[in-house]
Automatic annotation (TrEMBL), chain A:
It comes from Streptoalloteichus tenebrarius (strain ATCC 17920 / DSM 40477 / JCM 4838 / CBS 697.72 / NBRC 16177 / NCIMB 11028 / NRRL B-12390 / A12253. 1 / ISP 5477) (Streptomyces tenebrarius). This is Uncharacterized protein. It comes from the Bacteria. Residues 59-69 have a biased composition (Low complexity). Residues 1-93 are annotated as: Disordered.
UniProtKB/TrEMBL annotation, chain B:
Residues 87-295 form the Peptidase C1A papain C-terminal domain. It comes from Streptoalloteichus tenebrarius (strain ATCC 17920 / DSM 40477 / JCM 4838 / CBS 697.72 / NBRC 16177 / NCIMB 11028 / NRRL B-12390 / A12253. 1 / ISP 5477) (Streptomyces tenebrarius). This is Papain family cysteine protease. Residues 69-80 have a biased composition (Low complexity). Residues 69-88 are annotated as: Disordered.
Amino acid sequence: MSTSPAFPARPPDPDRGAPSWGVADAARDARQPADGAGNGALGASRPPSELPSVLHAMTTSATSAAGVSDDGDDGGRGPLPPADPDRRPAEGYGPGWMTDRAITHLFSYDVPRGVWVFVHGVGWRRLSPASDTGHAHLTALATLATHANLPVAYHEDAEGRIDRLLL
Amino acid sequence: MPDDQGPGRLAAVRDALARLGEPWRAGETSLSRLPDEAIRARLGVPPPRPDQLAARVGQPAAMAKAAIAAGAPRAAAPTADSPPPAQPRRFDLRDVDGHDYVTPVRNQGRAGSCVAFGVVAAMESTARYTRGAPGLDLDLSEGHLYFVHARARGYRVDTGSWPHEIFADASDKGVAFEECLPYVDDGSGALAPDWADRLARAVDVVDLTGSPARMKEHIRTRGPVTACMVVNKDFLYYTGGVYRATTEEFAGGHCVNVIGWDDDLGCWIGKNSWGVEWGEKGFFRIAYGEAYLEDYPDPRPTVHGCAAVSLRAWLPARRALHLFTSADDDNGWAYLEHFGWTRLAGGPAATGAKLTALAHARASGHRVTAFVDGTELRDVLVHD
């Protein structure tokens, strides 16, 4: 497990009419998701460990019917999984926040912390593998977003991986 | 001004206002018909001595000038020593982007507990405002603060108290929820045995005495400030407008909340604890510098606010409106309706379990009952 920073990334204020509460950091005046203090270093990579099998099954089944291109409209069939999941996205990635997006597909492959999500209008993005539990938590929320068709805001790190997720 | 209450005194106030061009309105109020003894009982800040008042002769004008200057644009780039940034010309916590963050006006009754009411009012509204949760239904016990904490300091109903001490108690010991000790102005009643699990604490109490600019900055970014003021007898008749003293007839020392300001009218917007039958439905406007509001004539600090309010309690059932997590090991948050963000406690595994339960609630719309402690959500029950 990695060690969490003293003040890990805190959530942005989703409907923003006033400052968020007064703990030490506080992206208080953000009307859009913004970097809070202490958001910088995520936990270092750790020795591989397996994702929970049920999680793997859920994510795999969600993408099993996928069958078209990896970066755009799928003609109703769903996108193909990322062609080379070990590579970073080809273009147009972070760091920064994206808001009001839909996650339409999930992809999990045979490496630890290897879940990707397909963001409508954006393409495939990997969930940050910085920590086991962090990756599992991101996956849980991504799964909910897909299942319940809930819009999300997310933050991409410098590698184009989603390291914060709000829904 | 006549010594008696009622029509004679009211007429004198109105005559004085007429001579000054009617800057504010006077009428009979919930206070104006009370005998002097009952009025003194409600003025719970020890009064200044005449020499302390005499030493502050130039203060009102200086404070009024500083308050207006707080709204002026800054010429140079800010530095660590810079004054707070320029403030808007008008700000009112009752209407911030259409949201009201001020809790209802209350009535302290016949007790010198105004300081407790001032501190509690600041905490309740700060809890709402800093969470961005105008619907947070937080009602704290002024009785706990005054009849338990202040009494432990030796204060009695008729002695009054000082806000820096009461705020310190609100920070160190905490204030129970109102239902743990409902306020009765004679101090009767007993504290509920489980009060420690229905508790609020003021966080990072700051002294803002003598700085209108910092008062404004605090109100705009954190919430109301608690301030002491010198009350003259005409103030008892206030029913609206921007108050300026028309008499030097002194009534006592008092503690109120400041919830906003209006530079165009040159005034603070205040919230009193004399019920809604006084003033502008319990609120008032008072000219900058008036009544020594920014710096009461005493060596003690008399203007305070708190940066946040920490709660330890089971929250009534409500929806989980948003969830947040990150790639960090242990970093899940839930945004609860009328409450705001709370971090999921208990380590990585417990965070995952709570996140799963809350995800179900988020998707289904089922309500959750949560026990929060400070910034953390300790326990959660999802209702079917």
